[in-house]
Amino acid sequence: MKTVATKNAQILAIDAGGTMTDTFIIDENGDFVVGKAQSTPEDESVGLLNSARDALTYWNTTVEEEFPKLLAGVYSGTAMLNRLVSRKGRRVGLIVNKGMEDFHRMGRAIQAYLGYSYSDRLHLNTHRYDPPLVPRELTRGVTERVDLFGNVVIPLYEHEVAPVVEDLLERDVEAIVISLLHSYKYPAHERKVRDIVKETMKRLGKEVPVFASVDYYPVRKESHRTNTTIIEAYAADPSRETLQKIDSRLKDHGSKFDLRVMASHGGTISTQANELARTLVSGPIGGVIGAKYLGEKLGIPNIACSDIGGTSFDMALITQGDLSINTSPDMARLVLSLPLVAMDTVGAGAGSYVRIDPNFKSLTLGPDSAGSRVGVCYPEGGVETVTVSDCHVVLGLINPDNFLGGEVKLYPERAYEAVKKQVAEPLGLSVEDAAYGVIDLLESQLRNYLESMILGKGYSPSQYVCFSYGGGGPLHTAGYTKGLGFEDVLVPAWAAGFSAFGCGAADFEYRYDKTLDINVNDGARDEVKFKAGKELQGAWDELMEKVAAEFEKNQFKRKDVDFRLYFRMQYQGQLNDLEIEAPIASFKGLDDWDALVTAFDDTYTRVYAKAARSPELGYSITGAIVRGIVEVAKPRIPEEPLSSETPPKEAFLGMRNVYWKGEWIVADIWEMEKLKPGNKINSFAILESPATTFVIPPGFETFLDQHRIFHLKEL
Ligand code: AMP
């Protein structure tokens, strides 16, 4: 990091994790510094300010000096997710259809085995139900019924609502959620219940927040919709207070921007946003958005993102500059209906536990991990089971005196003893071979995951550039990309802070979805197609209103917003629909219908196969989507002149013995920050940085380009 007296900090991106709070501060030239501090869950602003102070010491400046100059600040963190997972949210009352009071805790059955390995999914005796977010005794039914076409079959028994509210309030609920069957098709009943709930509370003089699912997530699948609306009441609304407190603490230190939060759809939203549950998962999304942004700047349209942290390996694909979005994802073992950047996650990270299967005497990795407690090599963590990190230390891949820049001291002899006892002796191997076997197994597993994710989507690695990041990514980049034939493999020098960088690069963006059910048969008359298009346009108009209303909260006018229209379509009767950007600005006539259908047919051909196209079945429009984007300041990608291929002497830290493929070999150790653009390293080397380690094994070479991005090449 450079040490300069005057800087103009412009963007502050925060990744408040369970143990560490990372800050990423970017100046007007795209230079950036990364700060780390212990997280302070009781008041996150303390850890955040400490972390920002730590970052700014690299520029010899202070929070008081720089905060007033900041143009934007983006937060991502795990506080809301923790509230949910540890079931520490509000006491919520739930109103559903009479007779349906148990569906929430049944969790569509699938929730009992979400997150399980394939073998555990098959064995019913391992399935486990988590406590429901709303217990059965706080769930009440009211009589009404709307069928799947949106017809009222039984009218709403309005007189049943007030007694239910009185009863729930007597039980001290802190919020009330209403979710009725098929309300996305016929919202009037749910809205009526909502109004009666509010009137009753007023009459009783005891008011708590009310959440009707149609006001938040007007989409199909009642378990998903109900869970998501409950999270809004249970965890998101209470977190709003926390976020606004952080915002005001930043303002106390001179900041003038309104804090934004990274959301699951890949954009950032205001702390005042209606649907705040979208910020439940933010860290890993940041990395994908960072890769997309970097790809746009560098002209790379197809990217395979790979992120290794302490606990997991996260993969995502960016194809032709676009992310794919999953609209019914699961998180924290709950099925949800909010748009989430599609990612594949496996529980294999640098902190994963290593065990010997007692039956097969084979190595198993994860899926649980020591996370921030590193491994046996870190006595303060209190971990007793060997982790992947212990193997890194035994092999000499990680410098035990430079973990988090030396803040966390690791003890190689502890790692050695543990690997010996728990892995090497049971397998009859030397300690080094056992540790090497663990790394080899991890990398071959990751390679298989990555390859199958790409092949499974109908693409090939040769069409993609692989981006590798996260603190643990560069340790294994060579291992998990070997032989896959990627077009290129990139490791940004700021790999360890890449997720926070992505948060800083994310657009200010709202996205709203609405379920539609519009069917147009093969050979339908023109009037039918016209009516279908008009209905889609009606949904877009409604969603544009919602987006505009959100931006207004931050004083942005409609004209400032770049609206993008999308639709979901499928061949009638098929199971999967596709999300497609509309090739039209608005629906005006039959030509527009043809354009929509052609865009769908083309995408379908790309994703599946031309032969699978089935226009004879007719088309269904299953959803309307509107994204609204407002331009905000973003980080600039570093740009430095290229120097010679030979690295500068001052970057050389010495040599270290590293165990590699059955023998100890001497590796050159370089300080990553001191390498210059243009430098090439083509011998066995390890590049060290305060929060990441990049391994260049024999048979590979790396080149640092003018953007401070390493290119890894297999020789
Ligand atoms: P992340 O969760 O993305 O910060 O990644 C954490 C992982 O980075 C750790 O589990 C380590 O295996 C890996 N790592 C590699 N080099 C370092 C380093 N110098 N300091 C801390 N972590 C490192």
Furnish the topology, listing elements before pairings.
Blueprint (H helix, E strand, L loop, with lengths): L8 E8 L3 E8 L4 E7 L5 H14 L5 H4 L5 E6 L1 H7 L6 E6 L5 H4 L11 H5 L16 E4 L2 E2 L5 E3 L6 H10 L4 E4 L9 H17 L5 E3 H4 L5 H31 L7 E3 L5 E3 L12 H16 L4 E6 L4 E7 L2 E2 L1 E2 L3 E2 L2 E2 L4 E2 L2 E3 L5 E5 L6 E7 L18 H8 L16 H16 L3 H26 L8 E5 L3 H9 L6 E5 L5 H8 L2 E13 L5 H27 L9 E10 L6 E4 L8 H18 L11 E12 L21 E9 L2 E9 L8 E2 L3 E4 L4 E4 L3 E5 L4 E6 L1
Parallel strand pairs: 1-4, 4-11, 5-6, 5-9, 9-10, 13-23, 23-24, 30-32
Antiparallel strand pairs: 1-2, 2-3, 7-8, 11-12, 13-14, 14-15, 14-20, 16-19, 17-18, 21-22, 24-35, 25-28, 26-27, 26-28, 29-30, 31-34, 32-33, 34-35
Helix pairs in contact: 3-9, 6-7, 10-15, 11-12, 11-13, 12-13, 13-14
Adenosine monophosphate (AMP) binds next to loops.
Could you describe the 3D structure shown?
By secondary structure, the protein is an alpha+beta fold. Among the domains are: 9-83 and 240-279, ATPase, nucleotide binding domain (Nucleotidyltransferase, domain 5), CATH 3.30.420.40; 91-173 and 175-208, no CATH class; 508-630, Dna Ligase, domain 1, CATH 3.30.1490; 649-714, no CATH class. It is 31% helix and 26% strand. It contains 17 helices and 35 strands. The strands form nine sheets. Strands 13, 14, 15, 20, 23, 24, 31, 34 and 35 form a nine-stranded mixed beta sheet that branches. A six-stranded mixed beta sheet has the order 3-2-1-4-11-12. The model is unreliable at 1-5 (pLDDT under 50). The structure holds adenosine monophosphate.
